[in-house]
Amino acid sequence: xxxxxxxxxxxxxxxxxxxxxxxxxxxxxxxxxxxxxxxxxxxxxxxxxxxxxxxxxxxxxxxxxxxxxxxxxxxxxxxxxxxxxxxxxxxxxxxxxxxxxxxxxxxxxxxxxxxxxxxxxxxxxxxxxxxxxxxxxxxxxxxxxxxxxxxxxxxxxxxxxxxxxxxxxxxxxxxxxxxxxxxxxxxxxxxxxxxxxxxxxxxxxxxxxxxxxxxxxxxxxxxxxxxxxxxxxxxxxxxxxxxxxxxxxxxxxxxxxxxxxxxxxxxxxxxxxxxxxxxxxxxxxxxxxxxxxxxxxxxxxxxxxxxxxxxxxxxxxxxxxxxxxxxxxxxxxxxxxxxxxxxxxxxxxxxxxxxxxxxxxxxxxxxxxxxxxxxxxxxxxxxxxxxxxxxxxxxxxxxxxxxxxxxxxxxxxxxxxxxxxxxxxxxxxxxxxxxxxxxxxxxxxxxxxxxxxxxxxxxxxxxxxxxxxxxxxxxxxxxxxxxxxxxxxxxxxxxxxxxxxxxxxxxxxxxxxxxxxxxxxxxxxxxxxxxxxxxxxxxxxxxxxxxxxxxxxxxxxxxxxxxxxxxxx
Length: 569
Fold this sequence. Notes:
FMN; alpha/beta; EC 1.8.1.2; 6-stranded antiparallel beta sheet; FAD; 6-stranded parallel beta sheet; Flavoprotein-like_sf
């Protein structure tokens, strides 16, 4: 205990010390006394105690292309550096029943296709929607990844966020919807996560700047070097093999997709301009881009098949009574015309951006080099009032000529990847579903993979629709393709599809499954992929002498371990 005189001297000396000086002095005096040097803790903020500090959260991600995983991993690292323990988990591996044990649960999840959850997160998604769980104890937040050029932007994130609230969970930070350039929004979101779960440390957040996360979609400039219709002239179909050359080196894995934004027909644009009387050279600013009317309609806006919500907005602007239908902009203007060019300018503001289309890459970096990429495109056709129309993007691509320029990007598929070179694979891909498997075969051939390869392919007619026939026969001759089973549905009195060929080879298929083979399915979602899955379940059940529930569990385990993957549309 200091004497009163010494205490007064100490007070006088230390009265104008800074905080850092006070800490240094206390350590200095402790050292003189021979005591262990301990850091002096700053006082806790009023109203909090040390016990208030949250020490553990769960950060779950649902991903298809890998973006959510990459982002969640980076965010987890940032949170850990701030002193909070993070359990990072893939929703494909997470047991939904464990939600009952969680206190803080944050989700980073992407949206696929027509507002669907990632394939590997669907089990979790279905569970929370099909079960009435009491989540009143749970505090949560959702970061949704998406692409605003698609109409159902971030729908999966919205669904998870609203469902958690319905189940009684407490939202501690608002839903954050991120576009393809999600860097800044992700930074902001993780700061709010930290504030929400660790309020006693709120003052220290600014001391640790958030690390930048790389994001965005890299655009490549290419030139069409080859475009060939793979079908015979007698075929009812047109399937184009398109090769693109680039000066810049490409980077992708077999199973990835090429994304391209199609342009609308110049003839259609000219008719729209004539009907509305608008000046095609007038510049208009939309929420995404500023350009002339002609360029907006040609390159940036969706005019081919409008959403019902857009049609409803059109009706409000024009004053027409329009039934709940989906029409093209040109059809709307023909049937329910605008009054003048000024009214059409309002219509332009409600149009959604042109959505990119994805095509499975059918080439291999190892086989074709880093300056060449291939896709396989079926030209789609449909009829409206007995008038034939082409699919927007397939028609757009099929009309390209050699030496024409094209802009594209690459989207990796996190779940649809080759296994190790010594592992066997079974590929099921009728029609253009063969595209990624052509990539698989070229890749495995180029690297000399030891694993066996079995392909099930089908289409309408052997003579006119057996695409890549000579290549597949060469792969068979060299042993790169171990088995090839074909199903041409129009060549027999009774239609034969790939699932029937699977059933015929049930015993050997199950032998491959038991040996660790991976199964890949690519092509039409309805009905092909479901028919194939039901056939696989029957094979597992009967060849493996399992119950229906055991067969389902067997296939689910294959999916969770990456041995059963689908790329369907």
